[in-house]
Structures are given as C-alpha cells and as structure tokens.
Amino acid sequence: MATTTANGDSPHHLKKPEKRKLLCLTICGYRKEGMSQEAYQAYMTENHANLVKELMCKYGIIRWTQVCVSPYPLSTLLSSRFPIRNLIIRTNATQTHMSDSSRALMSRIMDPQFANIVDYDCFSQVIFSDIEEYVKMKEDAFYLEWARGDHENFADTRRSR
User: Fold this and answer.
1) How many CB atoms lie within 10 A of CB 100?
2) Whole-number Å distance between alpha carbons of 12 and 17
C-alpha cells in the first residue's frame, strides 16, 4: 500500500528526485597572437579565473573545466597559494595540462582512426542547469565592465569557437 497525503499526493520525502538536464557550453580557445603558452596559462589561471570565479558561483555555474597547456605542475596548481585553487574548490573546476613536448608525443598513437590532432590552445566547458542564469551572468554589470573585455587580454576571440 502506497503512502499518500490527504490530497492523494506522495509525501515529499518519498518522491523520487527529478532528474535535471544540464547544459554544456564548449569553447575551443586560441591564445592571443604573440602570447606564449606560459603567459597564456598564467593569465588564465592567475588573472581571469580570479576575475570570474565569484561571478560563476553567483549564477550557479556547476562546473568549469579547462584543458589547456600549462607550465605549472599539478602540485603547484593544487597548492593553497595558487589562485586557481579557490576556483577548483568553489565551482568544481578541473584542469588537465599538456606541454608542447607531450603534445608531440601524440604522434605515437596516431592511426587511421586518430589521424587528426587539434591545434587549439584550450578546451573549456561550462556546465549549468538554467540558460536564464547564464544569460543573467552575461548581463551582470561586473561581467559587462570587467570580465567580457578581459578575454581580449589573453584570447584570440576571433579564432576561438
């Protein structure tokens, strides 16, 4: 026999949780022309991440993942003194790092199925549950004044997709 309330509904604590569908924005980014890998990664992790992390939290960003070239070993990235650590903790961000030398190693696994290696400098994904919250973030005064223009300091926004 099922338990129901006076109006015939199941009690809240017995209801199955609704599955939520998440949205994913994927960006294949290129660094600004003339900028080194080291400067690009440093700017993204030391400047841009610190600029946008509170904004992302404010608007419910669930996860921000960056896969990009990095001059920093993982132990440095996870140290309490490195600025990206707060972003990793607050927004469940992940970074995977590959250098030019490790990118060159990919030729060893190339075959007819894996014949193309991408040339972009950073692969970012932003996971969120509500498009309206993301729209609100991009309309936020702080985003408009600071974050939007900051991309021009490190990214080739015309090539990035």
Assistant:
1) 8
2) 9
